[in-house]
């Protein structure tokens, strides 16, 4: 899949995942009589979701500030044959309502799609509003699928693909405007990584907002004579083992990039895959250190933790030396 | 149409006595089981499964069915006894293979393993939210069916219940009937010893539910209360219903009722089983004589 067309200029189009998700959800509810959309005080005083809420009083719900109820109400609708999408702040969804996710979605094995917003450190509101655990947590829950789209357009592709996916899905999207990774059409398949860029020296396996930053790092390093490949690992579970093993065999050096706690996330999962496959490779994990991060907006926090293009390039440079 | 038809209260009392004995046989043959809680919930469960639910063992997936959500999932053994009694499963599966690898009747009910179980439960405080999902689905499709949700009074300490209680009343989901098996005892405390409700009924009322507080051991009163529920109209928004069924944990077995916390989970030997069955027989006879 080499020669992929992706955005990498400083003027990459900025897109807001939440806005596009809302637009897509309106379309899904209107086009599919089985689709439900449940918010937690996220309906808005006016606007497209409010309009939908008033038009579909039994399919478009708002449970109020009550995430546990959101998850199990969605499970109830799914048990009756619907495909419910539930959306709210990631931390309150995947941490507060984890019992409900574990038992009512995963154990009962029902096709609910949860969309946790403000993923990673993107909220800028400190540890209570950051979500740094969902990759590890969802990976450890049987039946779960865990997805972190790399840009807003991919969120829309994922939502379309999710209509046909069996079992529950947890999706993490960032808070606000993020640069678009792709500027050409491509095939999006849940569970299949996208090889965004070829490289022969090192492969960056990135997810979510890490994909764009990894591409920036790859371009910087290219100017220094390092050939850096980038894989968009949008699906954390089920993980694309072939993509990981293939990259390890090709370059022998892997760097994982995720806006998630360094423990238990994509990097740990990649290490598991390599070990189980009996493939050895050098592996470096870039992520959030195992600490509650300081307050600050993402544009400051990400460089602070070496999570922007320059920071990733610096880590990769040192690792490949 | 269901082939179950046990319309008379004396027959329901007789059936409750049988089910209580089956539960005690589980405690003898299947190993240690949750016992005192299922015993207190038996009368309500029998009134539902043998009459008011319109339960059809041959058609448990009918989209028009009334639904039963066992929020107090640790009482799964009570439903297993009823399902075996209705011929859905052989008794050996319960007595010999309860909670065994590769068999269907686990310590908490699994909907994917046991036909007739609506949702897999075990973690407390989930049933009312499931019921809300069902109620919205039914209302969306114009299905005039009811959702009965059985909870424990100890379980009401879980905060998630109150999210659901608030929501169901706010949205007029009057097809939901919550039944609290108010057996006055959790695994560690008798009612009021630790957490104090002041009045459980007032708590529900304050959230906008219609509350019936009844003697949950009096089959006549249970039957009358369930029969008196107005027909479901999916186009209507009204108050959801809460029935607080006052019971005693271990109901029907005097020595368990005296020390209910000791029989939250229990096992019986042959001698104790014979003694217990005799106690249940005399309890059942007294109950029938009272009508």
Write the layout of secondary structure elements.
The complex is a heterodimer of chains A (321) and B (291).
Chain A: E1 14-16, H1 17-31, E2 35-39, H2 48-55, E3 60-62, H3 67-79, E4 83-89, H4 90-96, H5 98-107, E5 113-117, H6 134-139, E6 145-147, H7 152-162, E7 169-172, E8 177-179, E9 194-197, E10 202-206, H8 210-223, E11 228-232, E12 235-237, H9 241-251, E13 253-261, H10 266-277, E14 282-288, H11 298-304, H12 309-320
Parallel strand pairs in A: 2-3, 2-4, 4-5, 5-7, 6-7, 10-11, 10-13, 13-14
Antiparallel strand pairs in A: 1-8, 6-12, 9-11
Helix pairs in contact in A: 1-7, 3-5, 8-12, 9-10
Chain B: H1 9-29, E1 33-34, H2 36-52, E2 67-70, H3 76-85, H4 91-95, H5 127-141, E3 147-152, H6 159-170, E4 176-182, H7 200-206, E5 210-215, H8 219-227, E6 241-246, H9 254-258, E7 265-266, H10 270-289
Parallel strand pairs in B: 2-3, 3-4, 4-6, 5-6
Antiparallel strand pairs in B: 1-7
